[in-house]
Amino acid sequence: MDILQRVVKVFEGERSHDAVWYSALKAVVAGKQGDHTLARELIYKAPESLQFFELRSAFAFLHRSYGMACIELTAGAYDRAESHFIATIKGCDIQGQLDYKAYSKRGLGEIAFVRGDFALAARYFTEILSVCAEMGVPEPHLYNCDLFCVLPDRFSGWTLFLEGQSPFANVM
Fold first, then answer.
1. What is the mean pLDDT of each successive set of 10 residues along the chain, which is 172 residues long?
2. CA dist list (Å): 137 to 39, 68, 143, 145
3. Which of 134, 26, 22 is nearest to 71 (CA)?
4. How far is residue 68's CA from residue 40's CA, in Å, rounded to a whole number?
5. DSSP alpha helices (H): ranges in the chain?
6. How many CB atoms lie within 10 A of CB 158?
7. How far is it, in rounded angstroms, from Cα 32 to Cα 63?
8. How far apart are CA 85 and CA 65, in angstroms?
9. Rounded CA gap, 118 and 112, in Å?
10. Which of 106, 101, 86, 109 has its CA nearest to residue 150?
11. Rounded distance, CA 26 to CA 33, Å?
């Protein structure tokens, strides 16, 4: 928790709300590096002062919720990741946030892919296509402006889907 305290200290004062944002980013990076214990500590055990700032910003809530989903996904806790992705999508529907909605649908698609439910994965990935069209973003460039949101390479269902490769060749 020492790292989180240092992050909070950096942003004390006029930019305190940034502490929520950067502690979530730090947690996602720790999760991608395989330190799931630190990642969970940073994102789940934030001091109450940070929770106040999260409530003031719906976008900070979405950012943190998606971060929690990514941490659980990389840790292999697919049920927990799934519930966080669903919560993020619901928040996005309320707030009209398309980018985190697309990222979360990809997360759900990757979970379905890992579980071998290729039809469900294809359904989620197909939904992303319409969200990308609505945003005006070509599908292969979904993450170009938000590199911290990119899922690790081992989650390859989206890439295989875009390339029309097996197992999606038979589902579509």
1. 53 56 74 82 63 59 86 94 96 92 96 96 96 91 79 91 83 57
2. 30, 25, 9, 10
3. 26
4. 8
5. 2-10, 18-32, 36-44, 48-56, 58-74, 78-95, 98-114, 118-135, 157-163, 168-171
6. 23
7. 16
8. 7
9. 7
10. 106
11. 11
Q: Cis check for the bond before 152: say yes or no (omega within 30 of 0).
A: no
Look-up of token digits 């439910």:
117
Question: Measured between alpha carbons, how far is 106 from 5 in angstroms, rounded to an integer?
Answer: 32
User: How long a stretch of residues is the chain?
Assistant: 172
Q: Using alpha carbons, list the distances in angstroms from residue 88 to 11, 51, 69, 106, 120.
A: 25, 17, 9, 12, 19
Distance of CA 134 to the CA centre of its chain: 19
